[in-house]
Amino acid sequence: MTGPILRLLDANANRAREALRVLEDYARFALNDSSISAALKDVRHELTTALSPVLQTAILHRDIAADVGVDNKTPSEQNRENLSHVVTASGKRLGEALRSIEEYLKTESAAAARNVELLRYRFYGIEQTLARTLQSRSRFSEVRLYVLITEALCRRPWLETVEQTIAGGADCIQLREKDLDGGELLARAKQLVALCRRHGVLSIMNDRPDLAILSDADGVHVGQEDLPADQVRKLMGPEKIVGVSTHCIEQARKAVLDGANYIGVGPFFRSATKPRDFLPGPAYAREVASSIGIPAVAIAGITAQNVDEVVASGLKAVAVSSAVIAADDVRGATEALKRKLKGSPSLAATQERSASQTLGIETQ
Q1: Residues 69-125: pLDDT tens digits?
Q2: Is 138 an annotated catalytic residue?
Q3: Are 307 and 339 in contact (CB under 8 A)?
Q4: Among 17, 23, 232, 348, which residue has the fewest nearby CB atoms (within 10 Å)?
Q5: How far is the C-alpha of 155 from the C-alpha of 153, rounded, in Å?
């Protein structure tokens, strides 16, 4: 094997191992996902094994002083805007390095080149999983109070109820209507989206990614029996929010890998709105708070009287329905819950928004 080929194999092996370490650290410390971290570690070690026959010699041909590409830098290489850019750049760097190693190894050993090719294809699957976890990671991070709107539970007209929850400090509104026909549900979704957008509040459709897309809602929320979250992510694209209901830590971890922006965690308490024959409760919430890296929203049976127990579990956001929308004073009930969630980064901004509205909203 010639000196130039040994030099480029040495350089690309270094690139590949460095990129793998960056990605492994993301999986380990940002995602808290042991399976992806382990998979990347396996690729790193198998690459070292595959190249070990040549790398001991290749390192002797390393010549940094004579490398004409050392100072060839583009502006984008020197800047990473956020975590997503770091991970994406490392993924592309790794794929390119593996391809270069594979091609030049063919001059020496077709079998060794084939082993690297298989590692490259294995990484492409991991890269796709990592890409899903990067979708719009920050859009939901400021939500503390999430209100589900179902007309049958509202004491006042549904859109007026939404207005009052926004005035009271809700950060996100979900339209949850299981029995409306598609046309009526789409019409309501468009009304909800317009109102939420006017006041800087997130709008979410329950169950229906198609209607979320057609109404231009900020996102969609799906349950364990609905379309799989990774397929929903394909439909919604990278910029929209995808939420997933979870009842155990395995479902939570899968939601992260499927590209969810947030998870629902519950039932936290027993709920008359949606009775369940299981109750993960505070124990599951604590598990999520300590090990899941995306926002998590506690749901079911939460009121201003018991929300302190939710906060004590480590979760920062709650989803409510009857506790707010069935109240005689919807705005007051919303404000009472939001006060209990004090200390969240978004609270001051929400209070400022609420005060500035006082109430410049028209009842429809």
Answers
A1: 877 877 777 788 788 899 999 999 999 999 999 999 999 999 999 999 999 999 999
A2: no
A3: no
A4: 348
A5: 7
Catalytic residue among 17, 62, 274, 353: 274
Is-catalytic flag, 340?
no
Same domain, 10 and 34: yes
Burial of 249: CB neighbours in 10 Å, binned 0-12, 13-18, 19+: middle
Our answer to whether residue 245 is catalytic in this structure is yes
Burial 137-173 (b: 16+ CB within 10 A, else e): bebbebbbbbbbbbbebbebebbbbbbbbbbbbbbbb
Kindly state whether residue 140 falls inside one of the protein's structural domains: no
- Three-class secondary structure of residue 149 per DSSP: strand
Instruction: Answer whether 0.90 is exceeded by the pTM.
Output: no
Task: Say which of 245, 271, 322, 346 is annotated catalytic.
Answer: 245
> Does residue 139 belong to any structural domain of this protein?
no
Q: Within this chain, do residues 165 and 127 fall inside the same structural domain, yes or no?
A: no
- Of 106, 133, 160, which closes a domain? 133
Which residues, including other chains, have CB under 8 Å from residue 267's CB and lie 6 or more apart?
247, 274, 276, 278, 279, 280, 281, 299, 300, 301
Count of CB atoms situated within 10 Å of the CB of 75: 6
Burial call 206-236: b when 16+ CB within 10 Å, e when fewer: bbbbebbeebebbbbbbeeebbebbebbeeb
Whether residues 244 and 268 share a domain: the answer is yes
**Which among 133, 154, 174 is the end of a domain?**
133
Q: Which of 176, 253, 316, 331 is catalytic?
A: 176
